[in-house]
Amino acid sequence: MAHRVLVVEDEEDIAFPLVRTLEREGYEVVWVESGAKALEEMGLGNVEVVILDLGLPDMDGLEVCRKGREVGYEGAIMIVTARAGELDRVVGLDYGADDYLAKPFGLAELQARVRALLRRTGNGLGSSAEEVPDGGLRIDVAARRVYSGDDEIPLTGKEFDVLSILAANRDKVVSRGKLMADVWDENWYGSTKTLDVTIGRLRQKLDGVGVTDKVVAVRGVGFRLEGPDA
Fold this sequence. Notes:
Layout: E1 4-8, H1 12-24, E2 28-32, H2 35-44, E3 49-53, H3 61-70, E4 76-81, H4 86-94, E5 99-102, H5 107-120, E6 131-134, E7 137-140, E8 145-148, E9 151-153, H6 157-168, E10 174-175, H7 176-184, H8 193-208, E11 214-218, E12 222-226
Parallel strand pairs: 1-2, 1-3, 3-4, 4-5
Antiparallel strand pairs: 6-7, 7-8, 8-9, 10-12, 11-12
Helix pairs in contact: 2-3, 4-8, 6-7, 6-8
Protein name: Response regulator transcription factor
InterPro entries: CheY-like_superfamily, OmpR/PhoB-type_DNA-bd, Sig_transdc_resp-reg_C-effctor, Sig_transdc_resp-reg_receiver, WalR-like, WH-like_DNA-bd_sf
Keywords: DNA-binding, Phosphoprotein, Two-component regulatory system
């Protein structure tokens, strides 16, 4: 079955090339022009990647991103915008986005990023069915879900990827460079502060449900997942 991609863009001259390019790649593409319609599509639960413009006529794209996560959308969100400043990148990721592409951009780069998002969200080739118990955490790799006991911890795509890497290297330091390369891939040219934002959100969510494992920063090197007795 073809992967389903939602394009949220109100400018036809930008949307049409995107839609045609993605369809030629074999994706099933839905195009909407407003935030309200985007949230309707995201609520159906059958969209795997959302390509989201921030400058929409009815609401800011960041609000679409935030509300989509609040109502349980678990697929990938890639923000596409002319707001290329570092602050907007960090804010966008803080709202639950998985990637950020500044206009103008090449269609080849867009295709590569969509493929990378599908791989990282478990919808591409080579996704694992392994379930990894990790101390008080239980990480279901295939479903990309994390539990503390019987309670699920809602994580964004980036938060899940970071936690999975740290859990696979429990009690070992994972360098910032490795996390950036594995989670944001080599095409990411933004600030590494995005990693700190993601780590901060991850810590809050783990602490919020009483998880005793801690994500510890090793100054100048990276991060380590360790238990309470470490």
